[in-house]
């Protein structure tokens, strides 16, 4: 389990202290945190508890939502606060969900994202926080994330040219992409974070909750893990599940299922490269 | 309305004769037909009624479903029957929805599609039927269509190298793609059909029924129409809507709404190139 990180949303009924305790008891060495529950618990208090626990924080979720032309200053200010929080928590990266459309001009929305991330990059770099751009599955293009492919995210990263701006490879968002293997190889050390969950069918009524535990769906975690490892990624696989059945289950059982999926499906991909 | 084609699914409560009659009464010069209702009406009878009506048939929907490794011979045989039907109806193209995953090996499923389409191409060419590969929105990759982008479809078309194999540009499937403009330009005369409907939010529980009348959603039909026209496409805009509210409405009202959307949103894009 040395490369498993438990994202807070996977066991979202737990408070921050309960989550840290459960990770320690189950031997999970890292967590991905979310801003709302961290703020409820207190950022400084959470930072202290995390240090006490010895756990690593692979991500803070999430900044972004940079596409609304009517509130760019407020969005930038909120992202600076998120960067501050990530720095205080010692999070390896701040995940950016860039935001959806506010009219029908998709290229303009994408340009707003690039401009805003470029403005945030120096602030993040000064605080040693990685801004991890998350290309999102195209099903979310209209209402959540206009950044739709890894290629597009890497083009943006290269144009911004800051080492503080990198990408998330989240299996559920990229698995369908005919160019995913090529683009993961291209990403190389710019992969800030490898997130895993599975694409399930039939999709639930709320497509946002269509992300299962690896093994519940259609994704080949062996191939994607091998690609990520071959690109040089040696970090954690952060399990971020959005699924009503998982959310309704006993968190102790969810930990056990996630640990088993990590061992049987996720880790073999990540380690195939090392043994190959 | 000289470039409007009404796809049968948009007013699916109508029988084939009712559909042909409604098109004539509303001055709509073309239809897109579906195999099931055509078979119910009789293929030969439908072909006769279509010729009597003077309407053009922009497409027959649909062939494809070529990814199941357990029934390739049956799938190929059914596609040959669909080609025969398209030829008898005088349909300009047979739309291919290629099929989803049957295991977790996505590259293998895509290879099966390419192999099957290559096998069908000579049969279609002999009968003057265009096989129109439909790249589908990635939300359908697992369960309906592993062909996910226009680039991927054009790569396949070029590899097969038959003039009988071309592509559909359907706005709802391609609008999110950061490369859509480049790939439409690349497609050129290989655009067999331009289908239009809108991406709506919130998505309905059945994502398949998330395709509205142009104007109901997020797509910029001006830009996409202009791209298609600039690529040399001079054919019809076939309106194919899957939407519970539209299906429940009076077909006469649906005709009126579609005609208005065509005139106000779709046609101006297609004609901007000509006047520009």
Describe this structure in words.
Two copies of one chain form a homodimer. Chain A is built from eleven helices and ten strands. Chain A has helices spanning 16-26, 35-41, 43-53, 72-89, 106-126, 150-160, 171-174, 180-187, 221-230, 244-248, 251-275, and strands at 4-7, 30-34, 56-64, 93-97, 130-133, 165-170, 191-196, 198-199, 211-212, 237-239. Chain A has an eight-stranded parallel β-barrel, surrounded by six helices. In chain A, strands 8-9 form a two-stranded antiparallel ribbon. In chain A, strand 4, helix 5 and strand 5 (130-133) form a beta-alpha-beta unit. The interface between A and B is medium-sized, with 29 and 29 residues. Chains A, B: InterPro entries: IolE/XylAMocC-like, Xyl_isomerase-like_sf, Xyl_isomerase-like_TIM-brl. Chains A, B: This is Sugar phosphate isomerase/epimerase. Chains A, B: Residues 20-261 form the Xylose isomerase-like TIM barrel domain. Chains A, B: One of its GO terms (molecular function) is isomerase activity.
């Amino acid at each position: 389990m040395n490369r498993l990180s438990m994202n807070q949303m996977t066991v979202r009924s737990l408070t921050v202290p309960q989550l840290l305790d459960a990770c320690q008891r189950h031997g999970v060495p890292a967590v991905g945190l979310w801003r709302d529950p961290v703020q409820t618990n207190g950022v400084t208090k959470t930072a202290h508890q995390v240090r006490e626990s010895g756990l690593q924080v692979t991500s803070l979720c999430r900044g972004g939502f940079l596409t609304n032309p009517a509130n760019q200053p407020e969005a930038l200010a909120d992202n600076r606060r998120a960067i501050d929080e990530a720095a205080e928590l010692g999070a390896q990266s701040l995940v950016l969900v860039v935001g959806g459309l506010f009219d029908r001009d998709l290229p303009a929305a994408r340009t707003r994202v690039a401009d805003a991330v470029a403005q945030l990059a120096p602030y993040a770099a000064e605080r040693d926080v990685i801004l991890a751009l998350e290309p999102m599955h195209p099903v979310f293009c209209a209402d959540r994330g206009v950044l739709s492919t890894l290629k597009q995210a890497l083009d943006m990263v290269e144009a911004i040219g800051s080492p503080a701006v990198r990408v998330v490879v989240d299996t559920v968002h990229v698995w369908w992409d005919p160019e995913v293997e090529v683009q993961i190889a291209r990403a190389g050390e710019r992969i800030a974070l490898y997130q895993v969950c599975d694409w399930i069918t039939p999709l639930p009524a709320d497509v946002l909750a269509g992300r299962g535990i690896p093994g519940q769906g259609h994704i080949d975690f062996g191939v994607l893990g091998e690609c990520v490892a071959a690109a040089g990624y040696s970090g954690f696989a952060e399990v971020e599940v959005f699924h009503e059945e998982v959310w309704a289950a006993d968190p102790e059982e969810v930990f056990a299922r996630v640990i088993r999926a990590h061992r049987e499906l996720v880790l073999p991909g990540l380690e195939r490269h090392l043994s190959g």
